[in-house]
Amino acid sequence: MRTAFIDQLIKEATENESIFLLVGDLGYSVVEPFAEKFPDRFLNAGIAEQNMTGVAAGLAMEGYNVFTYSIGNFPTLRCMEQIRYDVCYHNLSVKIVAVGGGYAYGPLGVSHHTTEDIGMLRTIPNLTVCAPGDPVETRMVTSFLCNHSGPGYLRLGKAGEKIIHDGPLQETGNHFPKITEGKETVVLTTGGMLETATAYVRANNLPWGIYSVPFIKPMNEEALLRIGGAYAKVITLEEHQASAGFGSAILEGFNNLVTAGKLTRFPDVKRIAIPDMFVGYAGTQDYIRKQVGLHL
Amino acid sequence: MQAKLTSGQIALAAAKRIVTLAYEKKASHIGGALSVKDILAVLYADILRYDPAVPGSPGRDRLFYSKGHACMALYAVLCETGFFNEDMLNTFTADGSYFTSHVNHKVPGIELSTGSLGHAFGVACGVALAANRKHQSHRVYVILSDGELDEGSNWEAFLFAAHHRLSNMVVIIDYNKVQSFGTVNEVMGLEPLADKLRSFGWDTTEIDGHDHEALRKTFASAAESQKPVAVIAHTIKGKGVSFMEGKLEWHYKSPSSAQWQEALASLEQNNV
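Output (structure tokens, whole complex):
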């Protein structure tokens, strides 16, 4: 995903001179092509994420569309208040990019497990929260953020994620990219769990629908309404704490639709997420996902 | 456009507004507002390039006011220099007013909302970096309190600005020696502060932060520096109101009617 991100960012920056990339002393063997091509719009801000986020806000005040890039919790939780107050209250075009969403850096330990970011960030006004499901979605979401005025968060995996969509997406912007239609039951995933859901449904030849939800906030309630009307049972799957994450956002979305009278029946929602725990042992991403129950 | 005021006129008028706002609106942080008013008065009278009719004009100098709690001083100076009128200022802290008691960018002339300490310096670094990258000549000023130097984020910014040679930046520390719950020396000593900043790569000057001539000279010569400039302005918390000077309690208290009258008389007498 990170390669898809940087490729798309370079493509966009070639045509859009406002794009600026700040990195927190990370991005080795990923961001160099951008730095070489656009030295005037690149800076390594050092291992100082609070300052990097402030600098990003300042650059954005002066007309740049700034991407900050680092691992998981560092450009996010480490500088929550800079994100909330400097970036989001001032509604500035700063896009926070975290690589290593979920347990992508599983063996590196809890410091590198990015499992609370969605919940924390989606409470902040003005912030668009994105977690693409594969490299194809990563390109689409990166392109969207490059052309979006205001703050954004992009949660990426690492490298080597499988391409799930055959060819480019039919639609761009905030929507639910479809993998397959189904009957009765639908799986909604965000981020890299798309591959898990798709593999399971295909291997077991189940008649389930599968949709990816790369935009967690704002939630596309029209898309959610169509899902709620078409399926009685909804399974949400995410690599994030169960509290306040993607499944919670889906529940809130359905609740809004039901209370607004747009949806007559609240679907049966089963949330699959991390059950309020840290993982203090090493493990590959697949191993940890299985241990904490992130499977269908 | 009103006639140009001297820094002395702005400082006295601002000081009177500060004590009056604190009295009428029962507001806190009068001490830190009075300690910084001379710095602001000199900047707005003689140093900054700005047009109050076009607060966001691209060529303006940018001032980032990190000690947002001392908002009354900046609001008062912006009122004196024509960014908004007295009626607007008098909505201070009222229901629905943008004049919150930590500075708010929704008020004309305020670049950045602050109030959580240790934020504005990093943002100002981004603005100064943008000016360098775009070959623009405006300058970037940051006003920090002494107590907020406890925040690590400020030291990230000190490192950053020096490393990237942001010589278009001037950081002014309002060193009034009293922070929220004790003196600076009691809570988290900063000395030797000038040595610290010089060792971080900053062109550092220590001056009397109430001496307008010294402030003017220091700010004017800052433009010559090849490095970012730090001005340690030694000030007195509550400056100009004799019974408030150096007193921790005036970080919090608002004056009674009698104290307000006494404060106005004291300001006249001390001719701040």
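The first strand of chain A starts at residue 19 and ends at 23.
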